[in-house]
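Example 244.
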Amino acid sequence: MTTNAIAVNGVDKIYGSGTNAVTALQDIHLEIKDQEFFTLLGPSGCGKTTLLRLIAGFEQPNRGEILLFGEHIEGLEPNQRPVNTVFQNYSLFPHMTISENIGFGLKMQRVDDAQIKATVGEMLELVKMQEYGGRKPNQLSGGQQQRIALARALAPKPKVLLLDEPLSALDLKLRQAMRHELKQLQKETGITFVFVTHDQEEAMSMSDRIAVMSQGRVQQLDAPETIYETPENRFVANFIGDVN
Ligand SMILES: Nc1ncnc2c1ncn2[C@@H]1O[C@H](COP(=O)(O)OP(=O)(O)OP(=O)(O)O)[C@@H](O)[C@H]1O
Ligand SMILES: [Mg+2]
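Predicted structure in complex with adenosine-5'-triphosphate:
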């Protein structure tokens, strides 16, 4: 039996309390396979970022549990989990060079300098930016900065990479090119990707499987073709139908 990278078992997440309580997630069950490109798709406010933050360890569930590679992780701080995150605003450290940005996580882990240098070179090559290591972030285009943010997140070789709408700041053309690059990167590294988007086309073109979410619940979890051909309810049909 293969172990899942992530198992989410009956998770609820409620922000605030009393009359201010907001139920962000309700009875979420899902399993994400190792090396899968898995997407959380749904409209604004449906709970996508909340679920990522729970997996990353920035928030705790009110009910249920989350397992990483079969292990309970409740007690683990975000930096102790085999998980890294690319946030929507992927701000690089402006005063550091590109190479220093990519090596930052490794330096925090006290990896020795020679090893950091080797890994940074490897990562620059992976995102096809070998010549840019000496530059500062403000000397790169938006798309190039996005690729460096990915390289920085990949450098410590996490087993799982969480990506929260990482392409939304880019223009359409660049976004389409980056979809292909991201997919390629995921295949090459074999890292499990959990990708968040509200863009149906983006989800359909990249994912092995998609969880369509609405109002804190998973509406359907299937391969893109299945969701497209046999939507389980009206919400999914309408939401996916917008692609055409
Ligand atoms: N810190 C918080 N305190 C209170 N409510 C919150 C908090 N964070 C999120 N929420 C609420 O929880 C719900 C889910 O929010 P979440 O950020 O997970 O949505 P999302 O799917 O990522 O949306 P978007 O596509 O706009 O980023 C929303 O109703 C939101 O207002
Ligand atoms: Mg969000």
